[in-house]
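ARCHIVE CARD
Drawer: 12
Card no.: 0347
Subject: one protein chain, sequence and derived structure
Cross-reference: see card 0346
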Amino acid sequence: QVQLVESGGGLVQPGGSLRLSCAASGDDFSSDQMGWYRQAAGKQRELVAQIDSGGRTWLESDVKGRFTISRDNAKNTVSLQMYSLKPEDTAVYYCNVWRVIGSSNINFWGQGTQVTVSS
């Protein structure tokens, strides 16, 4: 059974830093794309960062230069390092694994971790 467990969320002041981690279990994810989404109150879930099996990354424009994404295939983990946090980064952050199977795909999700940026 696939399970994604996030950790590292919390309350931080504007300008502060947080590191989110996601531990994936139940399968081998080394060939999958992994990423982080976030959902602010009253808004749709949005993609923040992705990293493919080769380590290539994509970051949403609002977080470029402030966030970095990394993965450790040996440990089945993906992390999101967040710097210079802003109040608008406040959201529930979700770990995601996206797997392509033939012509279809499947998403696995974590339960989410709250990040609150406030003074």
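Annotation on reverse: The first strand starts at residue 3 and ends at 7. The CA atoms of residues 38 and 93 lie 4 Å apart.
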